[in-house]
Amino acid sequence: MFTDKYDVIVVGAGHAGSEAAAASANMGQKTLLITMNLQNIAQMSCNPAMGGIAKGQILREIDALGGYSGMVSDTSAIQFKMLNKSKGPAMWSPRVQSDRMLFSEHWRDRLEQTENLDFYQEMVSGILVENHKIIGVKTSLGLKIYAKSVVLTNGTFLNGLIHIGDKNFGGGRAGERASTGITAELIDLGFEAGRMKTGTPPRVDGRSLDFSKMTEQPGDEQPGKFSYLDSTQKLSKQRSCWMTYTSPKVHDLLREGFDRSPMFNGRIQSIGPRYCPSIEDKIDRFADKDRHQMFIEPEGWKTVEFYVNGFSTSLPEDVQFKALKSVAGFENVKFFRPGYAIEYDYFPPTQLKHTLETKLVKGLYFAGQINGTTGYEEAASQGLMAGINAALKNQEKEEFILSRSEAYIGVLIDDLITKGTEEPYRMFTSRAEYRTLLRQDNADIRLTEKSHDLGLATDERMQRLEEKQSKTKAFVEFFKNTSVTTTEINPVLEAKSSAKVNQQGKLFKIFARPNMDMGDMLQLQSVKEFVKEHKVDEEVLEQVEVQIKYAGYIEKEKQNADKLHRLENVKIPMNFDYSQLKSMSFEAREKLGKIQPRTVSQASRVSGVNPSDISVLLVHMGR
After folding, report:
1. Helix, coil or strand: residue 33
2. Is residue 410 a contact partner of residue 401, using CB atoms and an 8 Å limit?
3. How are beta strands 117-121 and 31-35 bridged, if at all?
4. Residue pair 63/70 in contact by the 8 Å Cβ criterion
5. How far is it, in rounded angstroms, from Cα 546 to Cα 305?
């Protein structure tokens, strides 16, 4: 049936698998995407939304690199919000509410239009390995399909077990069977495996809700978008979300079911996501709080189904229903489906290289929740990087790795393979030490040229980037070189309660004042004329404002990043024997020997390694 050998096989068509398949195929690799159900490509298994704190930055990075997630998010969005707008630009994070069905449909459309990409629906039950090198996969029907590289993106399907109260059954998500066989084979090959847990809330009928008892959460008045390309458009209409709260009565009703909760009766022993706990976990851990927020999110443009964000649970369905009916606005609620928890296998990511290739089996890559992450965006970014590196390895080209100062994706992967994770990993802006450099507005400036050099980002993306950079540079120079009279600027300053000036001065100095923004500058005739003459768009306006107002912070962070790069450039030989460094602590020798960091900088980030250990290493290497 499969007579030809593929260059890359991607197992699983969730967010990681879809990005991996697209990247590999767009880099000229003959690629096969295998999944258990082709109707559920890029399925939003949990909430119908993309982006958010730090996750929005990751999506923009994926788009800048030539991935599809940003474009699909734009074309299937029903609401757009820029979060943290009251803070500095390093914290601004775009987020969209998505139409769940459109999202999956648009992903499949894009994949089907991608050259070099084939599809096959079946369960992969094992991998084919010879001499510690991947040669293909085998399916539940006994088919053997051969490839040079394989990317495993199994999500929550590996030996997935769904829990609702005291009931449990096998499944990768509600209504879909679990995937079996792969975990056992990987363990036989020497891999270490573990179990993790995640959960999802009930879905309800919006016609049964009383929104007058909730607080409306509309989208931005001037919505943005994710993709840097002009091929996607900003929303002209939006759907609102709604906010309500639990209460002491709701908490008491939930507690009545704790004895039947798999979280508290020992049925679930694996660790769930710290930053997205179930409602029963929240009222148990935060017993002093008498209410918790709930966001009621529409699942699409036309459907009446709503997602109850903040009410993730694995309690029995009767307990879920009874408690939810006591929430304001939910008095007459009707369930579409109850919430549930799911346990699944993962493989500690310290077993991977920075390319996401496994250390034990050449040509085998892991991406997504198999690495212990949580979230669509984290998964998609790993899939993209695994797909890129699988293609590069097949082409015998240099691997593609992003550093911590280049991208949130670089922070994510470095955290995973250097520190590992014992609970579902979620990205936050606080995890990035260079977040002023890693803003959502400049992902294309940071990454598109790199991707274009790989042959992934299109010429159209490069042309769009070059135009943006050219206009940004010209506009910044305009502010540096153009003076403004006291007559013109003082009324603007007075309106903002800013000190007036006594003499003519450069626009740059005025604009750099903390309380001045681009809206103020656009009141000036010279600025308005420049914008009109040079056809400056909103993206350039934003970029110029950030570069002028935060120039000092950006420059300081660049200097810090340059210091880091000096240690990044100190390479450690492959399979370095740390046991010879007797002056290094035993813990450091043990952990460094296991992880085998590529550089001294990475070694310094390994948990349990102290500065004195790094000094020993540098002395040994003659530095």
Report:
1. strand
2. yes
3. parallel
4. yes
5. 40
As given in the structure block, the two tokens for residue 243 are 């906010």
Does 84 have pLDDT greater than 80? yes
CA angle 264, 249, 210 (to 5 degrees): 115
Nearest to 197 by CA among 315, 313, 341, 338: 341
Read off the pLDDT of residues 303-340 as tens digits, 9 standing for 90 and up.
Answer: 999 999 999 999 999 999 999 999 999 999 999 999 99
Question: Which one, of 21, 218, 210, lies nearest residue 113 by Cα?
Answer: 21
One-letter amino acid at 297 equals: E
DSSP characters over 488-526: HHHHHHHHTT----SS-EEHHHHHTSTT--HHHHTTSHH
Whole-angstrom Cα distance, residue 83 to residue 56?
A: 9
Residue 195, SS3 per DSSP: strand
Residue 354: helix, strand or coil by DSSP? Answer: coil
Position 426, amino acid: R
- DSSP class of residue 135 equals E
Calpha distance 242→57 (Å, rounded): 25
Q: How far apart are CA 533 and CA 270, in angstroms?
A: 60
**For the chain, counts of helices (H) and of strands (E):** 21, 22
CA distances from 92 to 53, 68, 236, 266, 275 (A): 8, 22, 22, 41, 19
Residues in the chain, how many?
Answer: 623
**Do the Cβ atoms of 274 and 282 come closer than 8 Å?**
no
The residue among 317, 423, 315, 303 whose CA lies nearest residue 371 is 423
The DSSP element (H or E) to which 25 belongs, if any, is helix 15-26
**What confidence tens digit (pLDDT) does each residue in 586-605 have?**
888 988 998 899 888 888 88
Query: For 269, how many CA atoms within 13 A lie in the half-sphere containing its CB?
Result: 3
Closest to 255 measured CA to CA, from 323, 314, 317, 309: 323
Q: How far apart are CA 494 and CA 514, in angstroms?
A: 14
Task: Collect all residues with Cβ–Cβ distance below 8 Å to 262 and sequence separation of at least 6.
Answer: 163, 165, 166, 168, 268, 314, 341
**Residue 467 has what pLDDT?**
96
Residue 489: pLDDT band with limits 50, 70, 90: very high
Q: For residue 392, which of 419, 420, 353 has the smallest C-alpha distance?
A: 353
Instruction: From 102, 104, 113, select the one nearest 235 (Cα to Cα).
Output: 102
Structural Rg of the chain based on CA atoms: 26
256 φ/ψ angles, rounded to the nearest 5 degrees: -60, -25
What are the start-end ranges of the H helices in 76-140?
A: 100-112
- Determine the Cα–Cα distance for residues 266 and 30; give it in Å rounded to an integer: 46
User: Are the C-beta atoms of residues 425 and 415 closer than 8 Å to each other?
Assistant: yes
Q: How far is CA 583 from the centre of its chain?
A: 40
- Distance between CA atoms of 469 and 465, rounded to whole angstroms? 6
Write out the DSSP string of 379-437: HHHHHHHHHHHHHHHHTT-------TTT-HHHHHHHHHHHH--SS-B---GGG-TTTTT
Helices (H), 270-421: 279-285, 317-324, 376-394, 408-419
